[in-house]
Amino acid sequence: MRGKIVPDSVKHLQYEIRKVVEDAYKLVDLGVKMQWENIGDPIGTGEQVAPWIREAIANIAAENSSWAYSPTRGVKAARDFIAHTVNARGGVQITADDILFFNGLGDAVNKVYQLIRPEARVIMPSPCYSTHLSSEIMRGDHAPLTFRLDHRNDWQPDLADLRKKIAQHPEIVAIMLINPDNPTGMTYDREMLEEIVSIARDNGLFVISDEVYQQITFNGAQPLPIADVLGDVPGLALRGISKEYPWPGGRCGWLEFYNTGKDADFALYADSLFKAKMMEVCATTLPQLSIPVVMGDSRYQENLDKRAKIFEKRANDAYDFFNAIDGVTANRPRGAFYFTVVFDDGVLRENTLPIADPKVRDFIEAKVPGMISDKRFVYYLMGAYGICVTPLSGFHTELRGFRITLLQNDDATRLANLEKMKQAIEAYLA
What we know:
Layout: H1 16-29, E1 35-36, H2 51-61, H3 76-88, E2 99-102, H4 105-114, E3 121-126, H5 130-140, E4 146-150, E5 156-157, H6 159-168, E6 172-178, H7 190-203, E7 206-210, E8 235-240, E9 253-258, H8 264-279, H9 285-295, H10 300-322, E10 328-330, E11 338-343, H11 358-367, H12 373-385, E12 387-388, E13 390-391, E14 401-405, H13 411-429
Parallel strand pairs: 1-12, 3-4, 3-6, 6-7, 7-8
Antiparallel strand pairs: 2-9, 4-5, 8-9, 10-11, 11-14, 13-14
Helix pairs in contact: 2-9, 3-9, 4-5, 10-13, 11-12, 12-13
């Protein structure tokens, strides 16, 4: 080519959750029967959407208006419904114009960081969901800037580390949270959120809160949106229907902006996101139209409660399995539908697992030289046991471990997979 096409920052485009799948499918071609424990798609793992929700969406699809463009901010009825829901909680009050729809939260996440000036930074938790941190560091070709989630303390944020990093980096303009957290399943309680909001207020920062799992809480945790504790601090939340209905294929997410009237620069930022979306015209109309119909139905809360109880049982089953294993640390999740296992320091070496099929063994052994230690375990787990998980190192952390989902609907298969992973860990560390 006449000149270089891509910027150096493309090296930050990493999504280990799906990257490992490329080699997993090659193992399938070699005859390995694979169990997929890596991607948070409830539908893909067999969950059936409630019939009344499917019927409601089918009825909307039959209406000619659902095939039209929506306003750039989103369908007015959906935004009115969301604003009313937010305001009814009694926290920060918003209007329909404080809501902006996107084609899924991946679209929204990209725009949120893209429109922050390149030299500014957003500090994020570690471990951290890849899309957030990759989008943030790619914008300015930065090294990651994170604060620690402590796996020795139920994944709670290390606030001393957060304060220290903010003091050391005046270029920080925002704090990002995921609540409930992906990949750890941790939830922020009110006291912790209020402390983080106080840190933001004291340092003139705004808060970004990814709340796509907000309605999936259990083991004593309750939904606690950032709007309930922000007070006068500017902030935004990312919400969606992909995990709630669930409808991941609907690609429907939105931003809720809070306190834009409190800071002119933050108001300009919010307006720039609206203008960027205007250049794309709008988000998909049909799923937006479903929001007041589905979420406004008296059966919706019952549907949420039923699903939360299911994930609570699965989370506790996983905890019982992994907590009994020497050499790893496991915490009991309180939200989302993930479970993270951390290997203790020093236990991972150039370990292996026996693989009977020579073609599969040769494939794995050709791949693992030079690999990060937890990814090496993931590859041997795929080759020897036919289970695909995500290495924890793929979530921008120095910790080594792996993340699984809690989405397998067949209880016998789910428990068998847990037993196989337990056996694999014990054999790998022996």
